[in-house]
């Protein structure tokens, strides 16, 4: 039987995402609710190694539910990838009396947590925080819904000018390995065509699609492109290619970049963060370890960290069809 | 075997909600994709009775995916509640060659559709469009997610001034019969207490909760109240009651009202609208009738209109507990 | 000759407004830039009386330029209206070594500052912070521009639903004594008619205007009403009156309330706050006292506090005409 | 004496900007108010050459006051730079009975208007519509205030992630020849340093400033850079340069691009558009020609087109100092 947890550490790690602060708040307040101490660990695993800790009570997380970013800061730690680094980190946790850990982050952060757990048997729980939505075991990662809204609000603005000048815009969104943002924001923004890492539509199809669009009477168009698309050209080369092949088009490029990671979280992300935070802490208190909490249908469930790391959430292929129909 | 559908009518009915335009667009473009004609019917059933029809091609729904409200307008029709009204409506559909109907609306609109179908055997499909999220058969109604974001953005602003003056605010949100908006937006906005129609917490508990909040060091608080809460006092009476019993509190009231129905839809609502519109039209084309399309987990499914009307989506009681923990 | 200022106190007083934090930041950093100490005084004059002071360096105002509300909190102090209260306050300033004061607030706050200065000869400078824009000596008060944007964003949402249902909305905005918000937001939101405290158009004209609007083919309309309008009926009585006299109209009411005071400040308000803060501190350092800093044309200027208090900014009557033409 | 104007044409030309639609609406409704006919000319001067005209009554501009872009579309016309092009355009105006022209656009558009006026004596009035705010004769161009808000909202999001990771961001904003956007949005967004076309601070000063920033305890910073800055390196080269010289910095680049031209106009821009539209039409009706309407202080005034074209609005050098103080 696992010994009773009395003090929980919480950290954010990897790329930040909207909702991380709401999740920190949920972890801190759930600890307080159960009369457990809570320690904030700064700058992810690096702060764990350096002992950058701070006690957190329910009032230390006032007025952060609606703030983007993470008050605990985030970082990527090379040192934590070494056994020596992890040894120091473990020593610091022991010294501080921390006996359970909640890690808010993505794949890489969970891998760190799992290795740490396997070496020291230290109780860990993961909360999926990344805008990319590519983590297996949850239908929504924290920050994904907010990022989608950020993207469509920007494309709505771009559409104003595209439509005033009868122009074609290529909009690059985040997603090195996963097309979730591109696919959903593309449908939401009414994109003509969507290029994602999971599927190589080929350059011919893009040209065809743009030709058809012109023929069907559309005066302006948006193409949404994930960073990691497989078309073999970056977004600026693609512009040149299309302009060379379809001289009737005047193409503009917009690379949205890091703004997609920031901003006040959507209601969906705030509620999700609250539910995940409660579940993560209460699961540790029930003696569970080495799981990620996630959303499945309408319920919060647990997925072994190992599975969350090894697998990926596939894109919903129905959406590719919806996108095609919508661009009629 | 059902005869083949060749011309589909689409209307919006009842209270409008963000995403209705995106759903109209989806219906129109799915028709075009399948080389079916599509007719827009203005002002809901009333326009059906008056023959207020307009042919819609894929270009008539350009640039509306991001617009609040409904370009087809909405209305409540008393005449359609009479057999004579429905007879006129049916005659108009026949005259116009319309042989399938997509109704975007809520409970009342679906009841109209079902009666119409039962009397004339006319193929109908429902798309749940209402901000209240109280329709059985879908985990999200169109517009609900947008309304949640509208509410928390406003409460975020109210919190600025509440917190600057150490004040208590009572914020009334929509929801005569259902507490979904209050409960989720309340958690999202970090409310101290949430009053909903489904549960009478009692006045004593509200006072206790506010006393505890003061004692725990909170300087300002928000209480979110659904229109239809069961506490037996309206929001202004409640203010007087609390100020009489807890003189340390200076209460302000804010009634959010109709702004909750408007605004550009969230990405979630736009994608949902697109998926529901595709499914509604393709289901009619497959010979199905008398269903509502809805979201179940990650999939679009069908629920018999009869069930959608008779049942209601319960609030998630786990959220009441999350709310309580979050206000620690 | 005035003695050299070495330590400046800053406080916010009266109703809060967006941009107050940006002004606090500007005061604090201008002090740091000139190697002067800066003390934050909490809860306005009440905190001055209670000695609720905190030293502020340039890093204590990090990341607040974009936050609504005021980190120094605000309050109305009855005690400061008494000679005893002001005596205590003065004693506290002397004890803390504060020898100059920047007051961010409105009319009432400036009156307090002027009395305090007249009694103790204490150097004071005022920064106009109020959403109402009714302070003489500046063409824009801090927070006014943000409040205008808040109002039109909400009315844009209301218009979505108004236009979907062919309805008339009465929208009440802040402004007990001044119609600046109503007049400008009314024009910005495309209101049919605007009711302000400065001018009693009379009920007949409102009915005429609404009749004309219907006749001209408008299907929905917005009337913007300042709290302090002179029409002699509150907004709910007005609804009843219009519905009784123009039965073709279905009127809805929306009272915007305190949300108008909150929210992230607009760029205009942030830049204005920065300029006013610099000028307030540097004027004190130059030995000036008893002035308000304000915007005149494109320049920051000084107005004696006495004038700022006794006079009011008139509404621009040209705008009444613009509004009438726009509702053609 | 000038003959009486009976039919006014209105067009938008050059890069679009938020508020152009509000200005079109104002022109159309002011014509209606004065019982003058109004003709919308599509795609700027090119549509004038092609006779792409449409009659516009007060109801044709319903619900556009809040829309970005321009419903009349915009374009740059090479043909209008030739005498033959202008001759065709003039012929079309005469044929359509148009006897006055309102041109909404920037420098280039005004040059076209002036040449056209000088050749044919055709009455023209200019409305300054461009986000760059570099037009002489008005303290605000249409769309500039909205663009500032768009930029700071995006930088607020970037700041969330910058601050979570202790990073430095270079944000490139529009402004090939003018630093108004960079300077004001930079102050509004709390930028560490601002690079503008009007002033070459030099690379040394940038490095110094960043070193000082680190030393003063700032963990993250934003540098705002106008497209046309004079530092001699593009934003990506600048990143490499800074990282080479200050290895303690991890720099990210964000190029905001065309989103700055779109979006729903701010209240300021909507009111300004309404006032400018009224003045432009009424000035034509008074027999005036060859002027630009603009904002001077709080009043709308006229500037000869010739002056508006030849001069430029200088940046306010006081703001450079404010920016320096604010980054203390």
UniProtKB/TrEMBL annotation, chains A, B, C, D:
Residues engaged in binding substrate: 130-132, 167, 174-176, 227, 252, 258-261
GO cellular component, one term: 6-phosphofructokinase complex
GO biological process: canonical glycolysis; fructose 1,6-bisphosphate metabolic process; fructose 6-phosphate metabolic process
Record entry for activity regulation: Allosterically activated by ADP and other diphosphonucleosides, and allosterically inhibited by phosphoenolpyruvate.
PROSITE patterns in alphabetical order: PHOSPHOFRUCTOKINASE
Keywords tagged on the record: Allosteric enzyme, ATP-binding, Cytoplasm, Glycolysis, Kinase, Magnesium, Metal-binding, Nucleotide-binding, Transferase
Lineage top rank: taxon: Bacteria
Catalytic activity: beta-D-fructose 6-phosphate + ATP = beta-D-fructose 1,6-bisphosphate + ADP + H(+)
Cofactor annotation: Mg(2+)
One Pfam family per UniProt: PFK
Binding site for Mg(2+): 107
Location(s) in or outside the cell: Cytoplasm
EC number: 2.7.1.11
InterPro entries assigned: ATP_PFK, ATP_PFK_prok-type, PFKA_ATP_prok, Phosphofructokinase_CS, Phosphofructokinase_dom, PKF_sf
Active site: 132 (proton acceptor)
Function: Catalyzes the phosphorylation of D-fructose 6-phosphate to fructose 1,6-bisphosphate by ATP, the first committing step of glycolysis.
PANTHER family: ATP-DEPENDENT 6-PHOSPHOFRUCTOKINASE, PHOSPHOFRUCTOKINASE
Subunit structure: Homotetramer.
Designated name of the protein: ATP-dependent 6-phosphofructokinase
Source organism of the structure: Flavobacterium noncentrifugens
